[in-house]
Amino acid sequence: MLILLKEETLGGLTYNMNKSFEFISVIEECGLIDIGYTRLPFTWCNQMETQTRVWKRLDRSMVNDKWLEFMPQTTIEHLPSVGSDHSPLLMEMVRNNESHTKYFKFLYCWVDNDNFVETVQNCWNKEVTGNPMRQLHYKLKRLTSTLSTWSKKEYGDIYDKVNEYEETIRKAEEELLTNNTEELRQQLHLMNANYNRYLKIEESIHKQKTQLQWF
Fold it and tell me: Coiled-coil ranges per the record (predicted)?
């Protein structure tokens, strides 16, 4: 009759969480993650009268990182108990059909961006329900997704940007030979500043690649 959180029981005497510490320790040592559920919050009921009726979430699905890697869209639905004291669990799985795993790449150059810390804080401080392990897992998963999206918006494809600026600067320098105006010189100055910025980012990425093996 063990639970992981006080919120996983309703009715009856106050549950003593000390009874669950060993159970929680085993889950943590095994690196298991509670993948949550949909619909009713409890899976067991003692079917007693109103004053003594107790509900608990005794049944759950726990997986490890490897499972989430291959079945990232796994969901659990609590079905009606239909005369039993336990509710059946319906598991639905969607296999990751990608031929290779996409690893999250944290770029060192991100920390120099003025918006980086605020982006991380805003993402990390959003509320997540569940036990501490599940909260940590989903916060990290959400953060990697947020940073990947942020990087694409903030920088785009670094190598493409470098090539684009090189071509744009080349054309601007050619035009400047026949159209030497203040406006064009200012534009060229700005292009060179952005170009140098992306060159430094590209250099940082190359330096990082010499230290890490990326697949």
Answer: 155-182
DSSP codes of every residue in 22-58? HHHHHHHHTT-EE---BS-S-SEE----GGG--EE--
What's the rounded Cα separation, in Å, for the pair 169 and 185?
Answer: 11
Low-confidence ranges of the chain (pLDDT < 50): 99-101, 214-215
Tokens of 196: 């140098």
Q: How far is CA 131 from the centre of its chain?
A: 16
* CB crowding 124-159: b at 16 or more within 10 Å, else e: eeeeeebbebbeebbbeeebeebbeebbeeebeebe
The residues spanned by each domain of the chain are 1-97, 103-154, 158-209
Summarised one tens digit per residue, pLDDT across range 25-35 is 999 888 888 88
Helices (H), 56-157: 65-70, 116-124, 132-154
Structure tokens at 136: 């940590």
Q: 195, 211, 204, 214: which is closest to 110 by C-alpha?
A: 204
